[in-house]
Amino acid sequence: MRTTPLSQKLVGLAADATIVVAHRGDGGSFPENTLPAFRAAIHEGAGVIEFDIRQTQDGILVCIHDEALDRTSDSATVLGREKVRVQDVAFSQLAELDAGGWKDPRFAGTRIPSLEAGLEVIQDGSIAMIEHKAGDPAVLVDLLRRMDLVDDVLVQSFDWEWLEQVHALEPELTIGALGGYGEGKHLTDAMLPEIAATGAALVHWDYRSIREQDVRKLHALGYLVCVFTIDAPEDYRRAVEMGIDLITTNEPGRLRDFLARNR
Ligand code: G3P
Ligand code: CA
Fold first, then answer.
1. Does 249 sit in the ligand 1 pocket, CB within 6 Å?
2. pLDDT band at 52 (very low <50, low <70, confident <90, very high)
3. What is the mean pLDDT of residues 10-30?
4. pLDDT tens by residue, 157-169
5. What is the percentage of the chain residues whose pLDDT exceeds 90?
6. Is residue 61, in this structure, part of any structural domain at all?
7. Which of 44, 66, 241, 246 could link 253 by a cystine bridge, Cβ 3.0 to 4.6 Å?
8. Whose CA is nearest to atom 3 of ligand 1?
9. Which range marks the domain in which residue 257 is found?
């Protein structure tokens, strides 16, 4: 298990109170993975802001979850066809799309942000947890170096081979190994060397699949433990009782208030 100054800072913060991770920004109330969602998450006091990245045809990293643009933009109308993929459009085309109106008309005109724009907002009041969905590790490392943010962000992925690549390119990065997506997808001992090979300081597991024994094992190995994605107070309570360090939620304000009431 690798530690970094950022992972040590998070260990210190988590010892004081469970850290609120805002999922896709304040994704419950704002259009996910957009600047308004990131600003709202900062306003709600989220210690960490999680979001997803993909790469456009012309090599720009952008904040978006799905491979196709349809669910979170008006791409079908503007581009005239359905299921257009992020990787098949230039950033200039993507910047024309409305990524807010689908959530609520009051967010119409919100754009899909570049990773650079997202980081500029998040670094002002929180810590970025960048989830790789697609894109070249070297492009990400170059951007983080240019912005002088290598020591200030978390980079995570379900793709542990991609994490190994990014870790080899920039060993100072703080890495999170994502896993356990779905029900009953437990951590196994066979996974531990694979997780270690990613250079991870943090393990981020599906709440539905994590067990108390997994949390104990990961803590004994020195990992920070985060769970995704829970919004119900009874789940917050169980996660805190299990000793989880960070909780990913669509409702950062609700989790903040829960933690304040249950100190
Ligand atoms: O950060 C963990 C969580 O975001 C993973 O699931 O599908 O929301 O990216 P997903
Ligand atoms: Ca994500």
1. no
2. very high
3. 98
4. 999 999 999 999 9
5. 99
6. yes
7. 44
8. 228
9. 5-65+113-261
| Distance from Cα 51 to the centre of ligand 1, integer Å | 8
Q: How far is the CA of 243 from the centre of ligand 2 (A)?
A: 22
Q: Is 52 in the pocket of ligand 1 (CB under 6 A)?
A: yes
Atom of ligand 1 nearest to the CA of 129: 1
Q: How far is the CA of 24 from the centre of ligand 2 (A)?
A: 6
Residue of 53, 67, 127, 131 with the most ligand 1 atoms within 8 Å of its CB, for mutation: 131
CATH code where residue 244 lies: 3.20.20.190
What does residue 180 show for φ and ψ, rounded to 5 degrees? 80, 20
pLDDT score recorded for residue 1: 76
* Mean of pLDDT values over 16-42: 98
Per-residue confidence (pLDDT) for residue 245, from 0 to 100: 98
- For the chain, the distance separating the N- and C-terminal CA atoms, rounded to the nearest angstrom, is 29
Residue 87 covered by a domain: no
Average of per-residue pLDDT values in the chain:
98
How far CA 159 is from CA of 95, 177, 180, 204, in Å, comes to 27, 8, 12, 12
Residue 70 located in a structural domain:
no
**Per-residue confidence (pLDDT) for residue 263, from 0 to 100:** 86
> 209, exposed or middle or buried, with CB in 10 Å at 0-12, 13-18, 19+?
middle
Residue 152 lies in a domain: yes
Stretch 34-54: mean pLDDT, rounded? 98
**Would you say the CB of residue 33 lies under 6 angstroms from ligand 1?**
no
228 CA → ligand 1 middle, Å: 7
Inter-CA distances, 85 with 67, 71, 166, Å: 6, 11, 24
* C-alpha torsion 42→13→191→220, nearest 10: -170
Determine the residue of 50, 207, 247, 250 to mutate for testing ligand 1's pocket, defined as the one with the most ligand atoms within 8 A of the Cβ atom.
50
Q: Kindly report, residue by residue over 76-93, the tens digit of the pLDDT.
A: 999 999 999 999 999 999
In the chain, how many domains are there? 1
